[in-house]
Amino acid sequence: MAKTIGNPLSWLLQGAETTGHHIGQTVEEMGSSGIKELPKARKLTMDDIIHSLAAGLEDFAACRSDAMFLVLFYPLIGITLIVMSLSMNLLPLIVPMIMGFAILGPVAAVGLYEMSSRREAGFEPRWMDAFGVIRSPAFGGILVLGLYLAALFIVWLVAADMIYSRTLGPEPPASLLAFATEVVTTRSGWIMAIAGGIVGAVFAFAALAMSLVSFPLLLDRHVGLPVAVATSIKVLRKNPVICMTWGIIVGSALVIGAIPFLAGLIIVVPVLGHATWHLYRRAVQ
Asked: What whole-number distance in Å separates Cα of residue 256 and Cα of residue 265?
């Protein structure tokens, strides 16, 4: 049979049909009406955290997810630093933005969950697998939850700016060195650091409760967004000490990774992302 070349209109109709079907699946997946049995939270121990971090390192080595973050993630960091360097008004927000990775981290790591999932299933890992999330029926729920975390991140930056204005501000610092000196050697600087740490911990806890296992659960099972968030909160309530320990590990690793001009984040973020998948597998029955 002779092959024919489809006309642009047929391509457009086929594309619209495929897109419409995907959107319909996505909208249906966001609800939780068809769930017959809710996921159950397991009791966690420190061994689960250690195992998850070790498995995350193995996935990182096998998937070379650092390449993905180097290509996609680092230009965004560079653009952010360039924009911030143009205005001294934004200088006090550098640390809050770095800490904000703990809030936005689950969104950035969605592709890493997909890679760990495929490797766990026995497939050869490829960093291009991370883009398979876009075709997932759970993409709508992931997007909505991601927007929630983005809004939380913005509110955190506003709060951090208000704390700076009430302590060392409202005038912008003269330089990075002058700002660092004020933070370390003045009473107002200590108040700003302590208040910022407490408020930041509250925002990080809110993000942790909502997203600890939500994103990997959405990718792994057809549970819908409400059930995914409820399960994440359930895991936190059943394992408060372990989950808080995990949050401290994540926050500390992000700060340490950001010290050498953010270069360490190329390794820290992918490892934590892969490790989160394995923690989810041990946390949800």
From this structure: 9
Residue 174 lies inside a defined structural domain of this protein: yes
The dihedral built from the CA positions of residue 183, 184, 187 and 191, taken in this order, carries a sign that is positive
The rounded radius of gyration (Å) of the Cα atoms in the chain is: 21
Per-position b or e across 185-203, b if 16+ CB within 10 A of its CB? eeeebeebbebbeebbbeb
Tokens of 62: 């096998």
pTM of the entire structure? 0.75
Distance CA(23)–CA(70), nearest Å, equals: 31
Q: Does residue 138 lie in a domain region? A: yes
1: tokens are: 């049979």
Domain for residue 14, yes or no? no
pLDDT in tens, 12-45: 344 334 433 333 444 444 455 555 567 888 899 9
Query: According to the 3-state scheme, what is the secondary structure of 8-33?
Result: HHHHHHHHHHHHHHHHHHHHHHHCCC
Say how far apart CA 210 and CA 145 lie, in whole Å.
8
Domain count for the chain, please give it.
1
- Give the pLDDT score at 102: 76
CA distance 93 to 38: 41
Look up residue 100 and give its DSSP letter: T
Is residue 27 situated within a structural domain? no
Q: Domain limits at 218?
A: 39-283
| Residue among 103, 250, 88, 95 nearest 163 (CA) | 95
Q: What are 238's two structure tokens?
A: 């059943």
Residue 60 sits at φ, ψ, to 5 deg, of -60, -45
